[in-house]
Amino acid sequence: MAATAAPRPLQAVLDVAAAAALRAPSVLNTQPWRWIVHERSLDLRADPGRQLGAVDPEGRMLTISCGAALDHALIALRTEGYDARVELLPDARDPELLAAIYPAGHHTPLAEDFRRYQTTLRRHTDRRPFGPDPVTEDMIAGLTGAALAHGVHVHVVRDDQVPTLSALASVAAGEELADPAERAELARWTRRAPHATEGLATDVTVQGSPRRVPLRPHAEDAAGRLPAGPGNDSGARYLILWGNQDGRRAWLRAGQALSAVLLTAAESGLAASPMTDLVEVTDTRVSLRRLLSWQGHPYAVLRVGVAAADLGVPAAHRLGHDEVVEIDRPSS
Ligand SMILES: Cc1cc2nc3c(=O)[nH]c(=O)nc-3n(C[C@H](O)[C@H](O)[C@H](O)COP(=O)(O)O)c2cc1C
């Protein structure tokens, strides 16, 4: 008779989930999170030491990044056979505690759970201009559905709104670079050597190239080294993730939605890159609301499209497990 493997202890399963979350996208690859693995629950904490204090003083992007990490952890838990109950901001006296995850019942992993987990291993931000192939309405419906599952709406920027978006992107980039503290912060997090485990290495940011809507320059004089390739963003679509609330709970949900949209895009054969300087800068964030007909609050702008050439996406590397994950071992 074949021996049956003993089930993994719950704390080890939770550690697997925390480890999977290290691959989540984060603003400038700051990875502003910490995970505490308890015996029966998992805590997601903000790491204020990794907050972009000048560019993101309210912690909006930090919190959205942590929401994306939460989504990644829950994906891993499902493939490990667990549903989970999640409490967002469970302790008003402990604002750095963003979420507590409690495994709650058995989940039989489905093929789509395994596929999604596999996607977390290969998805990366592609900042090169996309090719002319269209983003189909079916693809858009998939992305919209992925966000709505987290209560977040997607506005697909109409062609007649693209010039406004383009102008706002220029304003946002200009405002961040005009502020000495913001410029210094962007430079600090973006001029990293290849294989740096935090921040953006110059091999993942793109050499300057004209586009319909400019991407954030990342730092004035630190042009990326990744060749732009043959695309010119002619087939790119621009999405605004938005919702009715603006605050930390809403930003966590926005991060979960952003993660789900990025992973759905990758599974649909789409490349994607967030463009959040438009949301970080107060003036352009307010102006973006006009594109939403003043219906709600923008959380992130996302460029999606079909890669212009099958060149592969360079990976931004991550901090090691022990730098971010703490195992809570009860003292005996
Ligand atoms: C909240 C948030 C904001 C981001 N903003 C931008 C952005 O404005 N421009 C950009 O090129 N990438 C942006 N990104 C993508 C990150 O730079 C990227 O996820 C990170 O470097 C990790 O790399 P990867 O996505 O390739 O794994 C953002 C990601 C998140 C989660």
Automatic annotation (TrEMBL):
Matching InterPro entries: Nitroreductase-like, Nitroreductase/BluB
Protein name: Nitroreductase family oxidoreductase
UniProt GO molecular function: oxidoreductase activity
Region (Disordered): 210-230
Taxonomy, superkingdom: Bacteria
